[in-house]
Amino acid sequence: MIIAAEREWAKAAVDRDIATFAKYMSDDYVLIEVTVSPGRQPQFDIMSKSSWVEKVRSGREKYDSVEIHDLKVLFNGDLATVTGAYSQRGTSDGKDISASGLYVNTWAKRDGQWQLINSTFP
Question: In CATH terms, is domain 2-121 a member of 3.10.450.50?
Fold first, then answer.
């Protein structure tokens, strides 16, 4: 079920299906991206669910494609950690965000439903 939800969530971003994109994320969801620039200290960039959903809804962030693979799910009670690889093509505020790499998603079972609470892109 978690892997199917991962795939649906990625597809929703490409399709700009805002209802599906948002429904998988908990209200307290956070996106954490690690930014590494030559000659600078690495830093974490954090975005809330509402900010990311609005960027996709407004078209400021567009995904032409998102592919995920090599998914593994590790369960610990009502938490599930998904590790995987991704490749994407798209833009954010006019800037190319095409990339590939690894990611980690954390899901929590709340009131009988699995919700995505965190995504981390190193």
Answer: yes
38 by Cβ neighbours in 10 Å (0-12 / 13-18 / 19+) ranks as exposed
Task: Write the pLDDT tens digit of every residue in 7-42.
Answer: 999 999 999 999 999 999 999 999 999 988 899 999
Cβ neighbours around 67 below 10 Å, total: 13
pTM of the model: 0.92
Q: 46-98 pLDDT, tens per residue?
A: 999 999 999 999 999 999 999 999 999 999 999 999 999 999 999 999 999 99
Return the number of other C-beta atoms located less than 10 Å from residue 98's C-beta: 12
Q: Between β-strands 25-35 and 61-76, what pairing exists: parallel, antiparallel or unpaired?
A: unpaired
CA angle at 99 for the pair 101 and 94, rounded to the nearest 5°: 150
Is there a contact between 6 and 71 (Cβ–Cβ < 8 Å)?
Answer: yes
**Domain segments of the chain as ranges:** 2-121
Q: Position of tokens 């990311």?
A: 52
